[in-house]
Amino acid sequence: MPDTPASSSLVEFKDVTFSYPGSAGDRVILDRMSLSVPRGKVTAIMGASGGGKTTVLRLIGGQQKANSGQVLFDGQDIGALSQADLYAARRRMGMLFQFGALFTDLSVFDNVAFPLREHTRLPEALVRDIVLMKLNAVGLRGARELMPSEISGGMARRVAMARAIVLDPELIMYDEPFAGLDPISLGTAAQLIRQLNDTLGITSIVVSHDLEETFRIADQVVILANGGIAAQGSPDEVLRSADPLVHQFVNALAEGPVKFHYPGPDVKTDFGNPPANTSARRAGKS
């Protein structure tokens, strides 16, 4: 029988609902959201803080499980995998954590070598060659003996990129890769994400708030809001969106659907009628 052709999407969300439990009731983050991440492309996940961007990465990596719906990675339902199968799926993913998250007591070389030593039985000579190749790809082969405390924030981010690609993953997820970088380091990081994606033939998901650089490198932009997708398409299509929330976001406007004040009682109620328990405590002190 002929092999079943691979889907054009490496990652798919199908009617996914996810919420975090809280004392005031479950806080719904994603509400029956559906999303496709095409193979070989750079997909940017954007939106206001608290909109579910990092949650999307956690669901793909299996750190969280959807309340309902399916999160598919190369056709596999991540939420239904056994622990062994989940670990096998994770070995096909690379992750660049916010601010790099390097091991501070390991050298640049050993940080990048860590996944190889943990997940493979390659001889140390081959580990050395692979690590040097990955460091060379991010321009830091000469920094291999340095410690994380001896390199800049931009260099640390590039070391983290080398570590993310050292196992030759099919998917790399970037959580705020541009946060805290100076303009030169930011531009370098953005260029590396695009080059690594195209050169290695991988799929990239970038969670970011940086509009200019993210729109410059992305093939697809997804704006999350109110538990779903407010806009999705090429950067140009998203910029032309008539959705008021998307317009506020891409133009960095203070006024719009995303309010400055967190929802709560009106001012008169809060300031004019103190809660009974507060009044009781005050009475007890007088």
Task: Please summarize what this structure is.
The protein has eleven helices and ten strands.
Descriptive overview:
By secondary structure, this protein is α/β, with parallel strands linked by helices. It has a domain at about 10-90 and about 170-240: Rossmann fold, CATH 3.40.50. Helix content is about 40%, strand content about 20%. It is built from eleven helices and ten strands. The strands form two sheets. It has a six-stranded mixed beta sheet, with helices on both faces. The chain has a four-stranded antiparallel beta sheet with strand order 2-1-4-5, covered by helices on one side. The protein is globular and about 70 Å long. The N and C termini lie far apart (about 85 Å).
Instruction: Write down how many β-strands occur, each being a DSSP E stretch of 2 or more residues.
Output: 10
Cα Rg:
22 Å
CATH architecture of the domain at 9-92 and 169-242: 3-Layer(aba) Sandwich
Query: What's the story with the biggest beta sheet?
Result: 6 strands, mixed
CATH topology heading of the domain at 9-92 and 169-242: Rossmann fold
Number of helices: 11
Shape descriptor reads globular
N-to-C order of helices and strands: EEEHEEHEHHHEHEHEEHHHH
| Oligomerization status of the protein chains | single chain
**Overall average pLDDT:** 84
Provide the β-strand percentage band.
Answer: 15-25%
CATH class of the domain at 9-92 and 169-242: Alpha Beta
Residue stretches low in confidence (pLDDT < 50, at least 5 long) are: none
Secondary structure category? alpha/beta
For this structure, what is the CATH homologous superfamily of the domain at 9-92 and 169-242?
P-loop containing nucleotide triphosphate hydrolases
Cross-sheet strand order for the largest sheet: 6-7-8-3-9-10
Portion in helices: 25-40%
Distance N to C terminus: 86 Å
